[in-house]
Design brief:
Strand content: under 5%
Radius of gyration: 18 Å
Helix content: over 70%
Distance between the termini: 14 Å
Number of strands: 0
Largest sheet: none
Order of helices and strands: HHHHHHHHHHHH
Structural class: mainly alpha
Shape: globular
Length: about 280
């Protein structure tokens, strides 16, 4: 069950990142984040009311609040790093956030077996290579590296926090709702500040009504990914769940190849192969 839900997380996050990347080509990134997450809030709110999840409220929801605050900071840091440095360097570094939940699992006493350790090493190497790391070219600004590492830590922290925010399915619905409300409040504040400083909130042609289905997909896929990861982490070793859930850059690269006809570089193809091999080791270990 852990492997199944963690791999579903990678699929959902990978597709959400692919969709978000396409949307931000025409709409400011902050607007994409706020609108997509607002749609998710409405859907989750309806689920919470329908399931009576309010009864699950408790101190553990502070983990969801923390995840909701950390997530936008990580995302904005990542977008800023992409603007400053080559994507071929920034993207693979951003995937190193898997070290946070893996570290948490080890601190809590998890001790993966030999095959699982080998799978973790191979899978993480595959994820980094699947991002298409750039080994040559202009030097990368120190600020871009620092922002990327901050984003990676934030992404990993969200994974660790959301896994602690609930212990039941209805509690998970409530935790995800609280996280998304916090996301919208934090992202909306950042968007307001950005507009006050002169940055446009919308493209020149106005609100992208035609993109609403895509925005809804991005927001709901991201929510579902958080949910499947939480289930995976609760039903098996966090060290395994976190690594399998972090294979999403492979999904994003394959989606770009299949839907946009982007050619995979040799290093990306090798990374995808390593990620698959690491997944098999983790599943059999």
């Amino acid at each position: 069950m852990t492997a199944l839900f963690a791999l579903a997380t990678s699929l959902l996050w990978g597709l959400a990142d692919f969709g978000g990347g396409l949307l931000t080509r025409r709409t400011p990134a902050l607007t994409v984040v706020v609108v997509s997450q607002s749609i998710a809030v409405v859907v989750l709110g309806a689920i919470v009311v329908a399931t009576g999840a309010w009864s699950e409220a408790g101190p553990q929801l502070w983990f969801a609040v923390a995840a909701g605050l950390v997530g936008p900071v990580a995302m904005l840091s990542f977008y800023k790093a992409l603007a400053l440095g080559p994507m071929g360097v920034v993207s693979p570094l951003g995937s190193l956030g898997v070290a946070v939940p893996v570290g948490v699992g080890l601190v809590l006493g998890e001790r993966p077996g030999l095959l699982q350790v080998a799978g973790i090493v191979v899978a993480v190497a595959g994820v980094v290579l699947a991002g298409g790391p750039q080994f040559t070219g202009a030097p990368v600004q120190r600020q871009a590296v620092l922002l990327t590492l901050l984003a990676a830590f934030g992404f990993g922290a969200v994974m660790a926090l959301i896994a602690e925010a609930s212990t039941t399915l209805t509690g998970l619905f409530l935790a995800l709702f609280v996280q998304r409300v916090t996301n919208v409040l934090a992202g909306g504040t950042a968007l307001y500040v950005s507009v006050r400083r002169g940055s446009p909130a919308l493209p020149a042609e106005g609100f992208p009504w035609g993109s609403l289905p895509a925005l809804a997909f991005v927001g709901l896929a991201d929510v579902a990914a958080n949910g499947t990861y939480s289930i995976a982490a609760q039903h098996g070793p966090v060290t395994v769940a976190a690594v399998l859930a972090s294979l999403y850059p492979v999904v994003t690269a394959l989606a770009a190849r299949g839907l946009l006809s982007e050619r995979l570089r040799a290093v990306q193809a090798a990374g995808a192969g390593l990620a698959l091999a690491g997944t098999m080791l983790l599943a059999t270990g």
